Amino acid sequence: MLLLAVDTATPAVTVALHDGDSVIAEAGQVDARRHGELLLPTVDRVLARAGLKLDAVTGVVVGVGPGPYTGLRVGLATAETFGLVLGVPVHGLCTLDGLAYAAGLTGPFAVATDARRKEVYWARYDDARTRVSEPAVDRPADIAEQLAGLPVVGSGALLYPEAFGDARGPEHQSAGALASLAAEKLAAGEPFLPPLPLYLRRPDAQVPKNYKVVTPQ
Amino acid sequence: MADEPLVLGIETSCDETGVGVVRGTTLLADAIASSVDEHARFGGVVPEVASRAHLEAMVPTIERALKQAGVAASDLDGIAVTAGPGLAGALLVGVSAAKAYAYALGKPLYGVNHLASHICVDQLEHGPLPEPTMALLVSGGHSSLLLAPDITNDVRPMGATIDDAAGEAFDKIARVLDLGFPGGPVIDRLAREGDPKAIAFPRGLTGPRDAAYDFSFSGLKTSVARWIEAKRSAGEEVPVRDVAASFQEAVVDVLTRKAVRACKDEGVDHLMIGGGVAANSRLRALAQERCERAGIRLRVPRPGLCTDNGAMVAALGAEMVARGRAASDWDLSADSSLPVTEPHVPGTGHGHTHDHDHVHEMSKDNLYS
Ligand SMILES: [Zn+2]
């Protein structure tokens, strides 16, 4: 088994290879503005470092968000297209589940990532592998009370220490954690999410004034 | 193979998810999924709605195109994709998918210019482009006059709109007349039953001291809207067909006049017209009339190839392969304002960067050591 995991739902562009036992290569970069440029070279680098070619991959794992839209789609478009060409399954996982897995906590906690617009994407967990709420998007102040006393993991927590008293790392998503979680779920025969984006927000239905600026200067 | 490259092209710059397959200058498949209906109630293209639709349609549209073409992905000689200009988020879906597709297949990737693709698509209809070709591109997003001595590496802007695109003017007037979105087809239809000389609407930028090849449709749009409002406030019925015909005449008069003038000035004996507005029947007729009078050969692809599609991207990609142009790097980015002077985005060969990895595994055959 060789899983290729990618996640672009957060500012991190993260890629990992997992052979069923462990992560054999991982690379990534935190740069919220360059997901489109960075992902493919990162995939290429991870494969090169493992001494493998893409056609050795037996399954693709992709973080489906929630995440700010533009970057999120880079990972999904890439994962789905790999799946098409390779003829292998594409397994969707909630991005927050990767952070929860990486946190490795054994008691109740929450994960929060930056949703921009002064909001966070978040969900509650009973332990590192067990999510107990649907991912949601809210203002930190509006959920501070219900998460009071709980550790809150991720950049969304660290950004708003006034709302989350016990904010903790890991700050950023790791495809290695996502791949490890996927390998466990595959071994246990547990279901995945479809490789479809979790936007959690409706699109801004605004037509910009010059909606397609393509006039040469 | 070299003279007849088999190329798949992906286009996602606006609201059409297009995937085309060509062999040289022969069209094999042109699969399209459009989100235009989802934008209709907003009166224009909503970028986030378009981007979401592209992601949903991407893989199924690739599959459909390959099936239509009756070729195997492994037989492709290259993958082309619109790198820009266009809506940033929309472009990014196509660029991401194209990179993954090319990488997984082990084929070269060509990031190409949307405007150059609009010109090159005519090769699929009328054979190889004459060099140079003068091109008038008119759509909801662009109104440009371009001189193309070599579509793969030399495209020169002659003029462009200084305000609205021609297609936008159609959309806006259609909105004022309550005709819905997009405005082009319905105005074209109504105009056939109207009098193009009924109302003398202004011709923008046609004075002796105005830029010879630039366009302006904003003043026309305002003038038409005022005329309609004046009728309405006087309690008179708006002669919709005459308004449509007179407005359309003002637009196509300026477009064709300037395009023919550019051909004459530059000594170019071919004019191609592309973009969604090239489907307009009056534009085609008037351009034909004026080109014939000036001894210019007019080339206009069928309407389905004038609007945004994947075949045009594949057509330009095939030309890039045929002429041995450099492929793009894996870090190709979507460039919403890619200049028309860059028909493609060649790689530097240094697409891989040494950055802050948290990688601990190093294989022996690391390509980047
Ligand atoms: Zn176009």
From TrEMBL, chain A:
Family matches, as Gene3D superfamilies: 3.30.420.40
Classification via SUPFAM superfamilies: Actin-like ATPase domain (SSF53067)
Domain Gcp-like: 32-144
InterPro entries in the cross-refs: ATPase_NBD (IPR043129), Gcp-like_dom (IPR000905), T6A_TsaB (IPR022496)
One Pfam family linked to the record: TsaD
Position of the signal peptide: none
PANTHER family xrefs: TRNA N6-ADENOSINE THREONYLCARBAMOYLTRANSFERASE, TRNA THREONYLCARBAMOYLADENOSINE BIOSYNTHESIS PROTEIN TSAB
Entry-linked NCBIfam families: T6A_YeaZ
Full protein name: tRNA (Adenosine(37)-N6)-threonylcarbamoyltransferase complex dimerization subunit type 1 TsaB
UniProtKB/TrEMBL annotation, chain B:
Protein source organism: Streptomyces chryseus
Cofactors named for this entry: Fe(2+)
Principal location listed in the UniProt entry: cytoplasm
Region described as Disordered: spans on this chain: 334-369
Residues noted as binding substrate in the record, renumbered to the chain: L137, V138, S139, G140, G141, D171, G184, D188, N280
UniProt keywords, alphabetically: Acyltransferase, Cytoplasm, Iron, Metal-binding, Transferase, tRNA processing
Biased composition (Basic and acidic residues): 352-369
Positions bound to Fe cation: H114, H118, D308
Pfam families per the UniProt record, alphabetical: TsaD (PF00814)
Biased composition (Low complexity): 334-347
EC category: transferase
NCBIfam families on file: gcp_kae1, T6A_TsaD_YgjD
Stored Gene3D superfamilies: 3.30.420.40
Record-stated family: Belongs to the KAE1 / TsaD family.
Name of this chain's protein: tRNA N6-adenosine threonylcarbamoyltransferase
Cofactor annotation remark: Binds 1 Fe(2+) ion per subunit.
